[in-house]
Design goal:
This protein is an alpha+beta fold. It has helices at residues 2-6, 12-26, 29-32, 52-60, 62-71, 73-78, 123-140; strands at 35-41, 44-49, 86-91. It comes from Hydrogenimonas cancrithermarum.
Length: 142
Amino acid sequence: MLTHFVSQPIYAKLQQQTCFRLLKKALPASLQRGILFIYVKNRTLFFAVKHPAFKMEFDYKLSLIKNLLSTLPPLKEACKAHEIKDVKAFVSKFAPAPKAPGSTEPRYTERAHGTFEVHAESDEIKAAFEEIKETIEQNLHP
């Protein structure tokens, strides 16, 4: 019953998305990472990719994509309504902007509590340990 509803012309976009999802799953992982979006226009399947390197890889593996469309039964069935004759890839101007690098300085929470007794006999060593205790307490309560 669900298949009958989905096959109605009103749900053509849903059928199209099913075709694109299955096609993307059938591609190698190296190609999947580069796809931004897919669409069909004038019987041509277009892949919008993130970077020119992905476009070169798509162009190199164009025969693989065409072969997948014509041989895999689930893909062939899902994409039959689009009558795809050609496959092209292009670099999209809508590629997401690279994320700004965050701080590379590691931040750790203080795990010590500074609750130790200093049993040193030298005043220099005692002063150094007291300074360490104060630093630990400051790190606990910034």
